Amino acid sequence: MTEEEINKISKKHIKAMNKNNPQAEIMNWVESIPLKTNTGFYFDYKFELLNPDNPFSFGGAPGYFIDQETGELRNLSWQELRTIKKTLS
How far apart are CA 11 and CA 18, in angstroms? Predict the structure, then answer.
């Protein structure tokens, strides 16, 4: 898959997350800059607060990975992210 096709998959994912966002009055998911690996692209989960004076935080997956060959998108654990970053160092 091309980088353009990967970015389309990512945009679709973010759009779906915002559509189903139970915190839509507080925050919106936004696109992040992809990190290219040997087998695909990693994207951080990133959000913008709609009211910066009202802090909001939560936990979860640090981001998601899109396989360049198959286009499969999957959430990554913090351990998987550390492994990816080690291979890029």
Answer: 11
Token pair recorded at residue 49: 């607060």
Alpha-carbon distance 16 to 89, whole Å? 32
CA torsion sign for 28, 32, 19, 59 is negative
Half-sphere exposure at residue 24, Cβ-oriented, CA atoms within 13 angstroms: 9
* pLDDT tens per residue across span 2-57: 999 999 999 999 999 999 999 898 999 999 999 999 999 999 999 999 988 877 77
How much is the pLDDT for 85?
A: 85
Q: What is the DSSP letter of 30?
A: E
Burial annotation 28-60 (CB, 10 A radius, 16+ → b, else e): ebeebebbeeeebbbbebebeeeeeeeeeeeee
pLDDT of residue 46: 94
